[in-house]
Write a structure and sequence with these properties.
The complex is a heterotrimer.
Chain A (H helix, E strand, L loop, with lengths): L1 H9 L5 E4 L2 E4 L21 E4 L2 E3 L4 E4 L9 H13 L7 E3 L10 H13 L5 H15 L9 H28 L7 E3 L2 E3 L5 E3 H8 L28 H6 L14 E7 L6 E5 L1 H4 L4 E7 L2 E6 L2 H9 L2 E4 L8 H9 L7 E8 L2 H4 L6 E7 L11 E6 L4 E5 L4 H12 L6 E5 L13 H11 L6 E4 L2 H7 L6 E10 L2 E11 L2 H9 L23 E8 L14 H19 L3 H7 L4 H14 L9 E10 L2 E12 L2 E12 L6 H21 L4 E2 L2 E2 L17 E7 L16 H13 L16
Parallel strand pairs in A: 5-6, 10-20, 18-19, 22-23, 26-29
Antiparallel strand pairs in A: 1-2, 3-4, 4-5, 7-8, 8-9, 10-13, 11-14, 12-13, 15-23, 16-21, 17-18, 17-20, 21-22, 24-25, 25-26, 27-28
Chain B lengths: L1 E4 L2 E4 L8 H8 L18 E4 L2 E4 L12 E3 L12 H8 L9 H14 L5 H8 L9 H17 L1
Parallel strand pairs in B: 1-5
Antiparallel strand pairs in B: 1-2, 3-4, 3-5
Helix pairs in contact in B: 2-5
Chain C lengths: L30 H15 L2 H4 L10 E2 L8 E2 L59 H8 L10 H13 L3 H6 L12 H13 L9
Antiparallel strand pairs in C: 1-2
Classes of the chains: A alpha+beta, B alpha+beta, C mainly alpha.
InterPro entries (chain C): Multihaem_cyt_sf
Protein name (chain C): Cytochrome c domain-containing protein
Organism (chain C): Psychromarinibacter sediminicola
Chain lengths: 745, 153, 206
């Protein structure tokens, strides 16, 4: 394949590095050379060919630096290396590896660059500012933005190929047979006479030979693993209870900590711990930033003692009541607050000067992340270093933050990344880890595990940003001719980057996400965004801005199609030229049997949203029953390019649809007296099994490059559902959660 | 208190109102039992208590006195996989996996009491087990598959 | 506002809060007094602590409280089934753990309440949820629809349930920040007796 040929010269430059006690191969470089972080820990006779592969006489370890939040990142990364290295599952261990610039995420930077290039009429200065912000946030080692697969796809196959070819070179050194005559299979180099040399037996020699500098990746026709259903390597452990999460760790001598910090993100005015201090198992009650922590010999005892601490909280820095938040957003559609005009095709203002055929306001609420494993971290502070055990998506920023708490250098902070019990953007935050570091710093030499109660987690979740859109449009001759949509909301990028310690500059790319890049070309199309200051601090929530923007634009589009008397699928197709986006919509329509009469009290709704470079079309079918709206079925077609594992991607897409639907139906965070009103899952449950429809998935592979799929199926779910409910009942839903307006079964 | 967990007897000194969840996790180190909500909203702490699927976060230690507790670590007799666990692997159910021990124990109990459950029955019994990753379609499929496997013996 | 894992000791025996049944002589109470007493009885039986589990033939218990907005069906797709104890699906006691009398309950906001009886829905004949005062009054006045209890037996049932650490006592002391049923148990028993001694009068058409 041509792609393989172009890849080879672009990337890996391999060099030998002499280190104490052995040789490490593969000081790897992209543009900036980074030392191979595996070199430091190598013993004699151990070889590391690059930052992702380590071979010793005892075994093979593949480094999978992308955090595994449940999406199967560890398996995916290992499979890409194993594909080229000719390893079977079971022949290697995996490890997350240390935080290191070598694990710089290529795709995050590329994504930001691509987004900037695609931005149409914005100034160069604005593009630079936006890109700069995104690069600062994500241009280092990170997991997020649906980038794990695109970042890894070439890089890790190359890593596997380099290891394979270098091991063959070692076999040549050992046997005198030409490496060109050798093949590899199942973790062994096979000689022409049939003799097989296990990689592990070659490790010592491989440490001495000149490394292979250039490799050719195999064409897709020769793939053994990629594109075929695989059994995820973490699956067996996850169904037998053997999978260890951060919350399960218990190093010798560990103390359990619980914390309560201000539910208003303000100050502690005073607290009285006298009742807690004498409770069984309680070791200490200490003040921490913004709250109070209890150290005890058991999590429950710490929770219970914390409950006995009376704390008076100061006020919030944001409006106390939810209605005031909405008022602030509603008052922000002004020239002074305008962030950017993202799209100005034709002249929408002129086209709508005589009046709009559709004019409506849409709302998306704050929503909590709340992965099922509550936030937690184990921290051990000693003089020479700080050890941290937690699941995190931004390891190097985490090191810096922890170092800032304990007074160490960032390099002295050792992060042992963990499998996460979900994230959805939650584990991009630092507060739970810096709090754990504060507590552990007060008990140097003793490992401390901080476990958030679910209530603490809800109270201090940085939710998905709140946003509102005002959309207008015109129709003529049965077609949509003009769209003018303004989006106002809390600037999520600035809020999040502020907590990382980076100043945000320029317009927020997430506010108009899913809207400005809608793949439609009506004659007149204008998109503007407005940043609302002073609202509650917010964070990236699975699919971020597009989770709001997709709902806004695709509901408006449905209203316009209805006003025009046009078929929602046909009209969208008429407005689209991008063949990849057209392909997913046509596929979803075909799967759903679009155009059929669904029958009495039933309706079909469609939506198409492109986010993170991936267009996803979804069609939802609902029935209005006596007991409420029932979602019968969802058909999803996506195109994220090459599919690495058809089973895992189906699972992932189904889950994203459940996420999108469940929160659109049932979930919001509202503030009262400055505090989130929702304290646990009874008030914010997303979706449960009884509301879950059949979800049929088709993954097209027409897109020219591989993309991530973790987030893109989320945004179309809410508008497709709302549009289906309109089709079934005539009731138009312009505000999430829909439960405010309709009852669900 | 006395407690048998996965066939092993334990004698412990804990408060009578300490939830079984924390007795198992923090006192006995049985961490397959997960804390998710503490108020019986998520089902991640589901265990079998004398054969009945229960939310361990709601069982005061005193109510578990002398009971036999089965956790995910003991399902299928330890090393051997239970039919439900096999079905979970065949269907590649788990994503993050955090809820799955509870899901599996609830499903195993369901199949003990109802060998061929309908979708409606599955929904009624399993909707107390929250999965934030959204693996419900595969859980449903895996329960049907496990039911078929158990019926065939 | 938010409190975590509040532990309240549950006194499972009647000893801590002795209630008595002391019926007035039958017919010794005026109809007006009886109706006034019924109004208070109705305040109790229509209160969410009582009515949420005295539901109809759909077997779906209800939830209410500040964080739920209006009263809504119990979450998690829960059905008590025709058994009214969830035996067909998920038994109520999977979460509403049955305690022994005198055991401490695990208590706190939004936790499933626990008593020293197997948690259950009241028999479908005793539906109160969604029923009018007159309908409930007629039901409670009809021994065919009270499990054969006349007004004195109803009062004794309330007392005995409390003595077992059951649902009635819980309704007046629900813990977890829940609003209790009004007036208190002894007053409720006295009101039932007053209403009964007046001849179990019911407003018609109300």
């Amino acid at each position: 394949m041509t792609r393989a040929a172009t890849i080879t010269r672009r990337t890996l430059l391999i060099g030998a590095t002499a280190i104490a006690g052995g040789v490490a191969f593969g000081a790897w470089a992209v543009r900036h050379p980074h030392d191979n972080p595996l070199a430091e820990g190598l013993g004699a006779g151990e070889a590391s060919f690059n930052p992702w592969v380590k071979v010793t006489g005892a075994g093979i370890t593949l480094i999978t630096p992308h955090a595994d939040l449940g999406q199967g990142a560890v398996h995916m990364q290992a499979a890409l290396i194993a594909e080229e290295m000719d390893l079977e599952f079971g022949q290697f261990d995996t490890a997350f590896g240390p935080p290191d610039p070598a694990y710089y995420n290529r795709a995050m930077a590329a994504e930001a660059g691509a987004a900037m290039a695609a931005l149409t009429p914005i100034s160069a200065a604005m593009a630079e500012a936006v890109a700069g912000g995104a690069m600062k946030l994500f241009g280092v080692q990170g997991t997020g933005g649906s980038t794990s697969a695109p970042d890894s796809f070439d890089k890790l196959r190359e890593a596997g190929a380099v290891a394979r070819e270098t091991l063959k070179r070692a076999a040549e050194e050992l046997t005198g047979v030409s490496a060109a005559e050798m093949t590899t299979e199942a973790g062994r180099v096979i000689l022409p006479d049939g003799r097989a040399l296990p990689y592990t037996d070659l490790a010592a020699v491989a440490a001495e030979v000149a490394p292979v500098r250039d490799v050719v990746l195999r064409p897709s026709s020769e793939w053994r693993l990629i594109g075929r259903p695989m059994a995820r390597i973490d699956m067996a452990d996850k169904v037998t209870g053997r999978q260890v999460y951060g919350i399960d760790l218990a190093p010798e001598g560990m103390l359990h900590a619980a914390v309560r910090t201000s539910p208003r993100r303000g100050e502690v005015l005073s607290y009285d711990a006298s009742a807690a201090a004498g409770m069984r198992g309680v070791q200490d009650v200490i003040a921490v930033t913004g709250g109070v922590a209890v150290l005890a010999d058991n999590t429950w005892r710490a929770f219970r003692a914390l409950d006995a601490v009376e704390i008076a909280w100061g006020p919030a820095a944001y409006p106390a009541e939810q209605a005031e938040h909405w008022e602030a957003v509603g008052a922000s559609f002004t020239d002074a607050r305008m962030d950017a005009e993202w799209r100005a095709d034709g002249d929408a203002a002129a086209a709508l000067s005589a009046g709009a055929d559709v004019a409506a306001e849409y709302r998306a609420p704050y929503v909590a992340h709340q992965p099922l494993e509550p936030l937690n971290a184990v921290v051990l502070v000693t003089e020479p270093r700080v050890e941290v055990w937690t699941a995190h998506q931004l390891p190097r920023f985490l090191q810096q933050r922890v170092a800032g708490v304990t007074g160490h250098d960032a390099e002295q902070v050792v992060l042992h990344n963990q499998f996460a019990g979900g994230s959805f953007g939650h584990r991009l935050e630092f507060e739970h880890v810096t709090l754990a570091a504060e507590i552990a710093n007060a008990r140097r030499g003793t490992p401390v595990k901080l476990t958030y109660s679910r209530e603490q987690d809800f109270a201090t979740d940085f939710p998905r940003h709140i946003a509102m859109a005002r959309g207008r449009g015109a129709v003529a001759d049965g077609h949509v001719t003009a769209i003018d949509i303004d989006v106002a909301g809390a600037p999520v990028t600035a809020s999040q980057m502020g907590r990382i310690g980076l100043g945000g500059a320029g317009p927020d790319t997430q506010l108009p996400a899913g809207v400005w890049n809608a793949p439609y070309g009506p004659e007149h199309f204008r998109v503007r965004s407005y940043a609302v200051p002073g609202l509650a601090p917010v964070s990236s929530w699975r699919s971020v801005g597009a989770s709001c923007g997709g709902f806004f634009i695709e509901t408006l589009m449905d209203e316009l199609c209805h006003a025009a008397g046009a078929d929602p699928v046909e009209e969208r197709l008429r407005l689209m030229t991008d063949p990849v986006a057209r392909g997913v919509l046509e596929a979803a329509a075909e799967m759903a049997g679009w155009g059929r009469d669904p029958g009495e009290d039933r309706g079909l709704g469609v939506a198409l949203v492109e986010s993170f470079g991936v267009p996803v079309a979804e069609i939802v079918e609902v029935t209005a029953t006596e007991g409420g709206i029932r979602i019968d079925a969802v058909w999803v077609a996506s195109d994220s390019g090459t599919v690495i594992d058809p089973v895992n991607i189906e699972n992932h897409i189904q889950g994203a649809v459940v996420w999108g639907l469940g929160h659109a139906m049932n979930s919001e965070i509202t503030y009262r007296d400055g505090m989130a009103e929702q304290s646990n899952y009874h008030a914010a449950e997303g979706m449960r099994m009884h509301q879950c429809p059949r979800i049929s998935v088709r993954t097209l592979e027409a897109a020219p490059r591989i993309r991530g799929i973790g987030e893109p199926p989320v945004p179309p779910a809410a508008p497709a559902l709302g549009n289906a409910i309109f089709a079934a009942t005539g009731q138009r839903l312009r505000e999430m959660p829909f439960r405010r307006h309709v009852r669900f079964v | 208190m006395r407690l048998t967990v996965n066939g092993t007897e334990h004698e412990l000194d804990v408060e009578p109102d300490m939830p079984l969840l924390w007795v198992l996790r923090d006192e006995l180190g049985v961490t397959g039992v997960k804390y998710g909500c503490g108020i019986a909203q998520c089902g991640a702490c589901t265990v079998h208590l004398d054969g009945m699927a229960m939310r361990a976060c709601q069982v005061p230690a005193a109510a578990a006195e002398g009971a036999e507790v089965l956790t995910i670590e003991g399902l299928g007799g330890g090393d051997a996989l239970h039919a439900v666990q096999r079905a979970w692997i065949d269907e590649q159910v788990a994503q993050c996996g955090y809820c799955q021990a509870g899901q599996i124990l609830q499903a195993a109990w369901l199949l003990e009491t109802s060998p061929a459950p309908s979708d409606e029955e599955i929904d009624r019994v399993m909707s107390g087990n929250l999965c934030r990753c959204g693996t419900y379609p595969r859980i449903r499929a895996a329960i049907h598959a496990a039911a078929a496997a158990l019926r065939e013996g | 506002m938010i409190r975590f894992l509040v532990l309240v000791l549950f006194t499972g025996s009647a000893a801590a809060q002795e209630v008595t049944v002391d019926p007035p002589e039958d017919g010794s109470v005026s109809r007006a007094e009886g109706l006034a007493a019924w109004e208070r009885v109705h305040d109790v039986v229509s209160h969410p602590r009582c009515a949420n589990c005295h539901v109809g033939a759909d077997n779906i218990p209800m939830w209410s409280g500040p964080s739920y907005g209006e009263t809504r069906p119990h979450g998690m797709f829960i059905s008590g089934g025709e058994s009214r104890i969830g035996a067909e699906f998920l038994p109520c006691s999977a979460c509403h753990v049955t305690l022994d009398a005198g055991q401490s309950r695990t208590d706190g906001p939004h936790r499933p309440p626990q008593v020293a009886l197997d948690w259950r829905l009241a028999p479908v004949d005793f539906q109160w949820f969604g029923r009018s005062s007159a309908e409930i009054c007629a039901q409670m006045a009809d021994p065919d629809r009270t499990g054969g209890r006349d007004w004195v037996a109803l009062a004794e049932h309330l007392r005995d349930d409390a003595g077992h650490g059951g649902f009635v006592k819980w309704g007046f002391d629900p813990g977890g920040g829940r609003a209790p049923a009004p007036y208190g148990l002894q007053a409720h028993i006295d009101d039932v007796l007053t209403w009964g001694a007046a001849g179990t009068p019911c407003e018609t058409g109300g």
